[in-house]
Structure formats: structure tokens, C-alpha cells
Specification:
alpha/beta, Rossmann fold, 7-stranded mixed β-sheet, 28% helix, globular, binds zinc ion
Length: 357
């Protein structure tokens, strides 16, 4: 296979448009690989912090002119000198933030929280990302994609499914638990899918968007879905012998939905906040202290847990790509972002080669 000199890539100027540009195909240096991108999914954070307007600061600060996309998955087509594990031909998922590798957070595997201003650079934010034909990645950021999984399965693992798995591991999910998921965007749908795979027999979901509710129901991810509203607390209690769920996860970032999560959780239950931004108001004594409840916050995941999740996803026989409702080629990238911005969809992917279906 010959690697071209030039490639096209998509940038996000921040006014709800996509700008296509021509870029040199990078040549991998020491410890780096060149990945032929096969699938690159769009994240809620791309819309929230970049597409509509560049609102992000620090780790969420998008640098103008960067190729967007932090959820890439593909195949290595060239490797630089000094690579220790991965080689040309390997199918790989890219952990979406490249950290310095030597700060305490990086050593824990949480490159998301890397404290180095100089070396922490997220793909698709401060370094080129996956919305292009090729991606230059650091070997240390890679996770092997098993043959049982497609590239579109892989694209969703680093950011979406990894983030969810981390949150679910913090609160612990088993067959004992009834689970409430508020917000059924791609992250909420992934939460329902993983909670089910981890053993939950009763999964309840809420959202304001009808398309998302029907997707969750049709795919069997949730046993019951409800349009978000003040009745949700009573609806959840009615399904749980009047006690509420053992575990609740907010993926909506909506203040009322967060309060529902807290109040619809039974005594001794655990709540996890994954959805980003916004606020919440609750009465500490009545809502958590007297009922012995615990609220966790969870941000992304670490690379070893991501590797573990990949193995479990194969064992559980589930496919993250079933959450993808729309696939676009790179030339139609603008349509992909525009659709994702409406919210009337599941996961949206930009796909290449065999992933074009
Ligand atoms: Zn993401
Ligand atoms: Zn670091």
C-alpha cells in the first residue's frame, strides 16, 4: 500500500460549520505510528465546546486549525523507530489524550488529567485528531483492537464507553441492582448497554428526545423509558417496590434530571454524575445524608481500564457500534456534525474503507 503525501482533514471554526483542509500526511517519529483512520465518531463534547462556539478552556481548549475528532480507530500503516509493542498492520484504538507520560496522573493511566501544560495534548483539540484519512499517534496511547470488534466498535471505546465503564465501576453494578440512567444520548445509551452487560436486570431511562427513548427501548437497552419530567420520581419508585433504584447515573447534565437521580435512589444507594456542565440543587440532609447515599463524579477513564473493557466487551458479546445510527464519509463530514448538533440521533460516525456501509 502506498501512502499519499497529502490528505484532507476537517476543522471546526466554531460557527456551526466544518472547514475541510489539505494537510501533509505525517511521517511518524520516534515512538510514533501513522494510523489509517477507519472510523471516527463525534462526541457530545465536540458539539458543546467546539462546533457551535469555541467555549472550552485548558484541556477543552480547541486550537484553531487542528483536525477535529478525538474518537479515532484504525490500522497502523507505518511506524517510527523505537516502537516497543505495536507495528504496521495492527488494529488500534487511540486513547484520546496524549499525556506527558511521567506525571502522577499519567503514571496512573489517567492522561486525561495530565498536569503537564507543555506535553498534555488531546487528539482533535490540541493536536490533530481523527477526522482525516491518517492520524499521527504516540504508541503509548494505543490499545489493541481485537478481531472480534469492528473499527466502529473501537472508535466509541476510548471516550464514550470507557467513560461510562469507569463511572459504573466506581459505583459497582451487579445483578442486584435496578439502574436509572438520566439522559439517553450516546453516553446514556452506552451506560444502559454496559449496566445490562454487567448484570443489571432492571434498567430505566429518561430523556427529553423521543428518538432517543425509542432507540433505547427498541434495542432492548432499557426495560422502561420515560419522557423527562416531574413524574419520573414516582415512575421509578413504582417499578422498584416503592424504594427507588440501587444505582443511578446522570448522563444529561440537566439540573432536574440530576435531582431525579439523587431522589430516585434508595437508602444506601450510589449515584454517579457523568454528564458535564450545568448545576444541581438538592437538600443535603433529606436527599443524601439521612438516606446514607453517596454521589460520585467520574471523568473519562485510564488506559489500563480501557484495555480491560475491550476484553470484557468481547466476552460479553456486545457491540458498541449498534449505537451508531448514522454513518458519513469524510466528504460529508459537515452533515455528520450538523446532525449530531440536533441531538435527534444515536451516535454519529465518519467512516472510511470497509466501515462505509
Ligand atoms: Zn468524546
Ligand atoms: Zn502527564
Amino acid at each position: 500500500m502506498t501512502i499519499p503525501k497529502k490528505m484532507s482533514g476537517a476543522m471546526l471554526p466554531g460557527n456551526s460549520t466544518v472547514e475541510m483542509g489539505s494537510f501533509d500526511v505525517p511521517i511518524p517519529g520516534h515512538g510514533e505510528v501513522l494510523v489509517k483512520v477507519k472510523s471516527s465518531t463525534i462526541c457530545g463534547s465536540d458539539i458543546r465546546a467546539i462546533y457551535k462556539e469555541h467555549t472550552g478552556k485548558g484541556p477543552e481548549g480547541y486550537q484553531n486549525g487542528m483536525i477535529a475528532g478525538h474518537e479515532p480507530c484504525g490500522q497502523i500503516v507505518a511506524e517510527g523507530p523505537g516502537c516497543r509493542r505495536f507495528k504496521t498492520g495492527d488494529r488500534v484504538i487511540v486513547y484520546h489524550i496524549s499525556g506527558c507520560g511521567v506525571c502522577n496522573d499519567c503514571r496512573r493511566g489517567y492522561m486525561i488529567s495530565c498536569t503537564s501544560d507543555k506535553y498534555r495534548r488531546a487528539y482533535g483539540w490540541q493536536r490533530h485528531g481523527g477526522m482525516a484519512e491518517y492520524l499521527l499517534a504516540e504508541e503509548k496511547d494505543l490499545v489493541q483492537l481485537p478481531d472480534e470488534l469492528t473499527y466502529s466498535d473501537g472508535a466509541q471505546i476510548a471516550c464514550g464507553f470507557g467513560t461510562v465503564y469507569e463511572g459504573l465501576e466506581k459505583i459497582g453494578i451487579s445483578g442486584n441492582d435496578a439502574v436509572l440512567v438520566t439522559g439517553l444520548g450516546p453516553v446514556g445509551l452506552a451506560t444502559a448497554m454496559l449496566a445490562r452487560a454487567m448484570g443489571a436486570k432492571l434498567v430505566i431511562g429518561t430523556d427529553t428526545v423521543a428518538e432517543r427513548l425509542s432507540l433505547a427501548k427498541e434495542q432492548g437497552l432499557c426495560d422502561h423509558v420515560f419522557a423527562s419530567g416531574p413524574e419520573n420520581l414516582a415512575q421509578v419508585k413504582a417499578l422498584t417496590s416503592g424504594f427507588g433504584v440501587e444505582k443511578a447515573i446522570d448522563c444529561s447534565a440537566n439540573d432536574k434530571a440530576r435531582l431525579t437521580c439523587i431522589q430516585a435512589t434508595r437508602k444506601w444507594g450510589k449515584i454517579c454524575f457523568i454528564g458535564e456542565g450545568g448545576t444541581v440543587q438538592f437538600a443535603p440532609s433529606a436527599d443524601i445524608i439521612h438516606d446514607q447515599k453517596t454521589i460520585y463524579g467520574s471523568w473519562v477513564t485510564n488506559i489500563w481500564r480501557m484495555e480491560e473493557l475491550v476484553e470484557r466487551i468481547v466476552r460479553w458479546g456486545i457491540h458498541p457500534e449498534t449505537l451508531i445510527t448514522h454513518r458519513f464519509t469524510l466528504e460529508k463530514c459537515a452533515d455528520a456534525y450538523a446532525l449530531m448538533a440536533t441531538g435527534r440521533c444515536g451516535k454519529v460516525a465518519v467512516v472510511f474503507d470497509e466501515e462505509v456501509k
